[in-house]
Structure formats: structure tokens, C-alpha cells
Amino acid sequence: MDVARIAQIVKKVSQAGREVLLEPEGLEVLRMMGVPVPPYLYLKGRPEVSARSLEGLAGDRVVVKAVSPEILHKSEMGAIRVVAREPAAVRSAMGSMEETLKGHGLKGFTVHQFVPYVPALGNELLLSMRWSDDFGPLVTLGLGGVHVEKLAEGSSGMGQTLVISPRLAATETGTDPLAASTLGELLTTPQRGYPPIVDGGELSDFLQRFVEAASVLLPELLEEVEINPLVVHGGKLVALDVLARRAPAPHLPAFERPIEKIDRLLHPRSIAVVGVSQRMNPGRVILQNILEAGFDPERVFVVKSGIEELEGCRCVADVRSLPERVDLLILAVAADRVPEILTSTITMSKAESVIVIPGGLEEKTGSEAIIGDMQAALARARTMDWRGPVVNGGNCLGIRSRPGRYDTLFLPAYKMPEPAAEPQPAALISQSGAFLAAKMSKLQELDFRYAVSVGNQFDLTIGDYLSYLGDDPELDVFAVYAEGFRRLDGMKFLLAARQIAHRGGTVVLYRAGRTAAGAAAAASHTASIAGDYRVTRALAASVGVVVAETMADFEDLVGLFLNLREKRVTGWRVAMLSNAGFECVAISDSLEWFEPASFSAATLSRLQTIFISSGIDRVVDPRNPLDVTPMMGDAAFEAAVRAVLEDEGVDAAVVGCVPLTGELDTLAPGGTHPEDVTNPESVAGRLAGLFQEYDKPWVAVVDAGRPYDPMTDQLRRAGIPTFRTAERAVRLFEVFTARRLS
Fold first, then answer.
1. CA 643: distance to chain centroid?
2. What is the reported pLDDT for 173?
3. Domain end call among 530, 563, 596
4. In the predicted model, is pLDDT for residue 157 greater than 50?
5. Is the confidence at residue 516, as pLDDT, over 50?
6. Nearest to 336 by CA among 310, 314, 356
7. Which of 195, 55, 63, 223 is nearest to 136 (CA)?
8. Are residues 91 and 163 in the same domain?
9. Percent of all residues in the chain with a pLDDT value above 70, rounded to a whole number
């Protein structure tokens, strides 16, 4: 690759004041990268067309294209024609385009040797390299041609597109992303008797060329290079069209954040709070929550003039008056007071970490100068020995740290679930404070060890937290809600997530802003840092992240991975059991990756005995799926589940219980009935015992109305992943199993 020649081309484009390379310049860049392009001419206009000039182009046809930095997609604009390789035909095409493209900044025409190929699906590819502020350089291979946008609209794009990160690839040896992809299989293997569309080695070499080029050229010289279409001709790949953009003005290098100080943030020895009122306000709620979480009031300072003590905590007049450099400073003040307080805190070295609660800083237009002053103060501190504080927020709900014995969420304690005696080995990291609170409320049985609302990520980022917490042996599951990443923090997130996956942990991600409207809403919410959902999804999945498609999936997947973390996952053979025939069918119909287990003769004999004792042997035979009918009682139901769990041919189980039968104890106590679902002898109590007894993973289904919510809650409190429909249970259980077996 001739990098010097490419730099000359880009310099010329920059001097001309253009962002987009003209097609001849783009084609020259491809040639310098070693990418084959058809022979072509670059002509300023019709007078330069002659029989002699066309002699170097083989064949009886040529492709004439208009050249303009304003025309990025030629087909839509009528800026491309296929004509006879004759001077008159070429001049006629040029003249016609000159007329129809007036006012579009024409710079001439290219005349290309015609490359014959069949423009069928799969024969036209799109290959690009581009710079992503989230992830750095990316290489993308997908189906191309003039219908590429429509193809993207019609599907999630995951099977049709391969996204490669050179930075990830450089640190992951022995993997072939093309061979592992659906697209690679489609393109490089025979399909229904037809030969492969392209040789696998040829395509891999092409991809590798782009990966290497992207690592060198982006973002210093180029921002994007896109070939569309890339076609197969004579067994070789040929680029027929290119769009290239030069790199924008370089970003100033950011100082590395001292993320080791996150330890002070999450496990502070001293806390100061600014913005506490003698009457109830968010600052006062935060102070009360800190104390109720168990933090020592003698190590809490309230920055408030005029009084000596509040809630048993010492008061000081201002940040300057703090008697020591505190581990954590919380700013619960109006947004317009934040810049001055934060700047003075940094200047006077008064805090190792800061939580900025209010919004209205980066979200509002016109705040750039104020933010710039804050960033400058922080940047100066980064050059000093102490390196300044780490800052969480703004526009955040704060942090609840169970090990740190504090809670800055400015929500009344009676509005949130009571903390459990011992937190679960999980961290919830959310860009949205409301999302954080909502999930803590809905998933109250999980009780996260850390719950972090990062807000606008003025300083600390999602990637910072995942990098720091990823090595914590007390954490197994990381639940992340992201609306967008700061510059290159997406890559930091991926690298940290991959390390977590390698050590056996799990990252569950919900990526918001996946549609144009959603991205716009996310941008307004998170200070314009929303990004590309499809790229995030593809790259995250490639490093072992479990990407949730919906918020409901996010909740259930976090529960699945947390509650089944100690279960031994050995395969795809699933036992299916229900007391309703329709549910047996529904479970079977939902299987995609699971395969029905074959019960052993001993298990079938054991089940037959249970069926006889329940009087259902004349109605059904034991088989998988196992229909135990509504006539089976609590003890027999437990015995049937126990029998299938003890079968060595069973790897996992889905246990459905339609609870309306009078044979099972499934209702909360009270009213006119004798049932008590909290009784250890009830079916829920018995299933809870089985869940603790066996290390095989299994899930439960309770498909019924609100009167049976207490039964569902009882099962969930016992740690059993419990769903309200069979289809949902199977789909998410398969996601869990696939990740654990990978």
C-alpha cells in the first residue's frame, strides 16, 4: 500500500476545499491499496473523446459516469450510462448528462471498461471502511448494488452484514470473522447445487487488505472509503464504483482518566454534599439516603453556611472550608452553580471523585463555553501528580453502592425496594437515571451490588466503569443501558466486555436509539452522543455480549444469567413438562436451538409409576413433552420434575404450570379458599426446593392472570427464572444457553 501517494491525493482534496474525493481520486486510492479497478479514462468533456482515447478500453461497451463532489449516488441522479464503445455514443451520453445535471458542479466524466456480471442478489457486494467515533476504524461487508438501502430497511441487517473492527481483530488471534458469519457462508460455500459466488480465499484476502488499510488510513487521512458494487469477474473481485471522504479536522487528544479513582467513588471513606436544604429537597433526600444506607455521619460533610450541624453531620460554609480532600463530593445544586463549584473543587484539590446530579449543562444549547471551562480545569488537573477527580454525570440520578454503604439516588426511600441482606453479584450501569430506578424497582429480587447512573458522561464513561468493575471477583453479571458512547468509548466497552466474557462473566446490553427517531430522542437526552445500533449490536455480539432486543428482554435476560449463574450448562437436550396440553405444544413449537431430550427407560418407568399414583395413566403416556394433566397434585408434580432432572440424557428443562387446577396449591392465602402458595408443601415451595437441589438449568412458566402473581413472585424470590408465556421462556432460555455454551 502506497500511503505516501494516498496522502498526496488527500492533501490535494483538502487544498481544493472538498470533503469528498472525486471518483478518479477515489479509484487512485483503491489502486494504491492494491484493489483491482477496471481500466478507465478521466475526461474533462466531450472534445477529449476520440477513437484513439477509447482504444485502451476492451469490449464493445463502456460505462460513462459524471464526476462531481456533489453527486454521491450516481444511479439515483442519472449520472451513469452504459453505451457502445464509440466516440459518438460516449459524447452523446456526456451531453445528455451535462444537460440534466446542470448546477451539480460537474468536474468532467470517467469512461470505464465495461465489466460483465449478473446483477443478482449476492453478486453485488458493498465493502467499506469508515471511521466511527464510537469504535474507531470499521470494515463492513454486505450485499450491495442499487438496492442496498431497501435491503437494509427490510431486516435487522445482521445476517446480511459483516462488521469487523481492526482494533478488536488485532487483539484476537485465531478467529476468521468471514467464515463464522452467515454472509460468509452464503458467499463462499455451494448453495443448492450452485457453486460459491466467490472464492473464500479471494474474499478473505480482500477483507484483510481493507482491515490493514483502515488501521493505517483512518482517521488521519480518510474518514470513509466505500466500494459499491464490488463484483466477481473472471474469478476475481473488481471494484466498479467508489465513494471516499477525507478525514475531518483532527480531535484534540483526550487525557486518560484515572479510573483507579473509581474505587474512591464506589467505596468512599468520606463524603461531602452540596445543595442540602433544611427543608426537603433533592440534596436533603440524598443526605438521608446516604445515612440510611449505613454511612458514618461523622465522615459526612454538608456544604452549607449558617449552621453547624444537619442530620448529625458537620456543616462547612463552602468547598474551600472542607477540612480534608474528601473521597466523594456530591453536587445537588442548580445547573448554573455547577461550573463554579466544580472548577474551584478541582483548583483547590478538594475531592477525589465528584457526582454531578443536575442536567441542563451539555443538553442545552449555548452551554459550550461553560463546559469548555470545566473541561479545561479538569484537563489541567490531569497533568498534575494527583490527576484531579473523576466526575460522574451530569444529568444523573447518582449511584447506589452496597459495598460503599451509600445511596445518592434522590428518590424517597419508601419509593424504592428495601435492600436485601446481601446484594447480588451484579452491577447495573445506565445512561438514564429513570431507567436505572425503573429496573431496580422491577427487578427488586436481584438487588444489584452497584447501580450507577452515568448521565452525560462528562468525564467517566460506560467503558470506564466496565473496565474497572470487570475484574471484580464479586461481580458475575453486568447490566448496561446505553444511548450512546463518548468518542472511542464504544471500543473501550467492547474490550472490557470481551475480558469479562473470557473470565466467565456476562454483559447484558440494551442499546437505545436504534431508529432515526429514537436516535434523535437519545441525542437530545444524552447530549448528542447517540450512535449506530446495528454496528453496536454486531460488534457487541462478536465479543460475547448478550444484546437484548427489547427492554422486557433486558429485564428477563439479566435475571436469567444472574439466577442460573451457578448452574452447569452441558448441552441442548431439553425436557418439557406442563400440566396443560396446549402448553406442551407451545413449548415444543417454540424450540429453535433446543432439541427434545429422549428419556431413559428408567425415567419412563419412574414417570409411569407417578402417573399411576395420580390416576392419569389411562389418559396420557409419559413422553417428552411430558403432559402431567391438571389432575396431578403438588407432590406428584414435584416428583415428575425431579425424575426428568435426574435423567442423564437431559441438559435443561422448561417447567410449565397452568395454576388454575384445584389439584395444586397456587393462590395466596385469604378469601374463601384453603390454599397458601407460601406453604413449603405447595407446588411453588416444592419447585423452590428442587431449584436449590439440582445444578441443571431450568425455567418455569406460569401462564395465568393476576390472581397468580403471588405464585410467580414466590418462584422468582426463590431464584427460579419465571415467565408468563412458554414462547418467551424458550426464546430467552435459548439465548442464555447459547451464550453459556459458546
1. 39
2. 65
3. 563
4. no
5. yes
6. 356
7. 223
8. no
9. 95
Cell numbers representing residue 419 in the block: 435492600
Cα angle 391, 397, 402; round to 5:
85
Whether the CB-CB separation of 290 and 311 falls below 8 Å is answered with no
Task: Assign 3-state DSSP to the chain and report helix, strand, coil percentages, each to 5.
Answer: 35, 20, 45
The three cell numbers locating residue 49: 473523446
How confident is residue 175, by pLDDT bands cut at 50, 70 and 90? confident
Q: Could you please report the per-residue DSSP string of 2-35?
A: -HHHHHHHHHHHHHTT-SBPPHHHHHHHHHHTT-
Same domain, 734 and 599: yes
Strands 573-578 and 652-656: what pairing?
parallel
Judged against a pLDDT cut of 80, whether residue 577 lies above it is answered with yes
- Examine the fold and report which residue of 229, 246, 263 is the final residue of a domain before the chain moves on: 246
Binning pLDDT at 50, 70 and 90, where does residue 452 land? Answer: very high
**Is 375 in the same domain as 518?**
no
What are residue 656's DSSP bridge partners? Answer: 578, 701
Distance from C-alpha of 347 to C-alpha of 115, rounded to nearest angstrom = 66
* Domains of the chain: total: 5
Asked if residue 469 is part of any domain, the answer here is yes
User: Could you tell me the three cell numbers for 512?
Assistant: 437505545
C-alpha dist (Å) from residue 613 to 8, 46, 606, 608, 631: 87, 95, 11, 9, 11
Residue 268's CATH number: 3.40.50.720
The answer to whether residues 282 and 226 belong to one domain is no
Do residues 345 and 305 share a domain? yes
Average pLDDT value for residue range 673-699: 98
DSSP characters over 424-491: EEEEEEES-HHHHHHHHHHTTTT-EEEEEE-TT-SSS-HHHHHHHHTT-TT--EEEEEESB--TTHHH
Evaluate whether residue 15 is within a structural domain: no
How is residue 111 written as a grid cell?
Answer: 469512461
- Average pLDDT of the chain? 93
Contact 394, 458 (CB under 8 A): yes
Global confidence as pTM: 0.92
Beta-sheet strands, E only, within 463-616 = 477-482, 506-511, 546-547, 573-578, 595-596
User: What span, in angstroms and rounded, lies between the C-alpha atoms of 686 and 467?
Assistant: 41
Same domain, residue pair 591 and 735 = yes
**Read out DSSP for 97-114?**
HHHHTTTS---EEEEEE-
Q: Does residue 147 have a pLDDT over 60?
A: no
- CA triplet 577, 578, 579: central angle to 5 degrees? 140
- Residue 653 falls inside a structural domain: yes
For Cα atoms 552, 556, 559, give the angle at the middle one, nearest 5 degrees.
145
Judge contact between 294 and 372, C-beta under 8 A. no
Distance, CA of 220 to CA of 203 (rounded, Å): 26
Q: Which domain holds residue 434?
A: 417-563
Cell numbers at 31, concatenated:
489502486
Task: Yes or no: say if 79 and 102 are a contact pair by the CB < 8 Å rule.
Answer: no
